[in-house]
Amino acid sequence: MRPGRENSVTGIVLGRELSGERHWKLTLLSPDAGVVVCLWRVSRNPETDKPDLFDRAEIELAGADGGVRFANSYRVERRQPTLGKDYQRLSLACRLAVLLARNPPPEESATGVFRLCETALDALAERPFPAAAYCKFLWQWMRMEGYPVREQWLEELAEEKRRKAAVVLGSPLDQQPESAEEIAGLARSLERWMAGECQFVLPD
Q1: What is the pTM for the complete model shown?
Q2: What is the CA radius of gyration of the chain?
């Protein structure tokens, strides 16, 4: 980006942390540019939109190529207010966001991953069996990026776990026959495969 040039970016807020005394460091997933990091000046104006996790927002970016980019405006298009009301749902949504922030999708698949992220966040906020929604997100993400998740992870599970995984992944969220504990265990197994075989960086 050239000095003084601005461009509009729409994205989902994956991360928000203080940077100094006057700025938020925002990490967003954009359907056009993948993961975007910028600084947003903290405003004392009560009428100004304040960035929140999982917002879908439009921002105006300014900054130089290779340098720090600043958000000159922030407009919320959609918010996920229900995620913060349930600890399990919020925890899984945060885990999903950190995974995406630490393992940015390539630009050519950013649009698909963005849509997948939106669908997963909606499911985590509103649908039953949030652990199944998270597990399905990991599975679909790996398949979208071309990793051999079916040929390696699924096929190398013990027979009973492989059967349960196939049922979880193939069943709608409101028709999950497995327990939440079983589904969470499958998600952890899939995460370990992603880290060990595909070099993904997992959340702490």
Answers
A1: 0.91
A2: 18
